Amino acid sequence: MAPERFVDLIAISQSTPGPIAINMATFVGYQVGGVPGSLVATLAVALPGMVLMMLFALFFFHFYERPVAQAMFRGLRPAVVGLIAAAAWQIGMVSIASGQALAITAVCCVLIAKWKFHPIPLVVGSAIAGMLLF
Question: 121 in a domain, yes or no?
C-alpha cells in the first residue's frame, strides 16, 4: 500500500468512532481481501489485545498497590509518550507535504494546546480547509 493511501486510511480511521488500530485493520483488510479480509484483520488486531488485557486484569488489582508495580507504571508513561510522538512524526512526514498542510497542522495544535478544542470540530474544519486549499 502506498504511504499516501495509508495516511488517508489513518485520517478516515481517526474520524470514525472506535479505536484507530481496529478501524485501520478493518479498512486495510477490506482493501486487501474484501469482507473476509476485513474480518480476519480486525480479529487479528483485536483478539491478542483482548486476551492480554483479560490476563492482565486478573493480576492488576492484586499487584497494583505494590511499589514495584507503581515504579513500572512510572517507567511506562514516558515510553508511551515516546511511542505516540514517533508515530506522529512518521505520519507527519508523509502527510505534511505543503505549506497549507503545515498551516492546518499548526492551527489544530494551537487550538488543542491553548484552548482545549474538541477534536471533532477540528476534523470537520480541517476537512473543509482541505476542500478549499487543495
Answer: no
> For residue 122, what are the contacts with CB-CB under 8 A and spacing of at least 6?
108, 111, 112
Claim: this prediction has a pTM higher than 0.70 = no
Place of cell 488517508: 8
pLDDT given at position 10: 78
Domain of residue 35, residue span: 1-63
Q: How far apart are CA 79 and CA 36, in angstroms?
A: 35
H/E segment holding residue 33? helix 20-63
Residue 16 has pLDDT above 80, yes or no: no
Length of the chain: 134
- Evaluate whether residue 14 is within a structural domain: yes
At residue 2, the pLDDT reads 80
Please indicate, yes or no, if residue 105 is contained in any of the structural domains. no
Return the pLDDT at 28: 87
Q: In what helix (H) or strand (E) does residue 115 lie, and over which residues does it extend?
A: helix 99-115
Tell me, yes or no, whether 132 lies in a domain: no
Q: Picking from 28-42, 54-68, 92-106, which range would have the lowest pLDDT averaged per residue?
A: 54-68
Domains of the chain: total? 1
Q: How far apart are CA 45 and CA 122, in angstroms?
A: 28
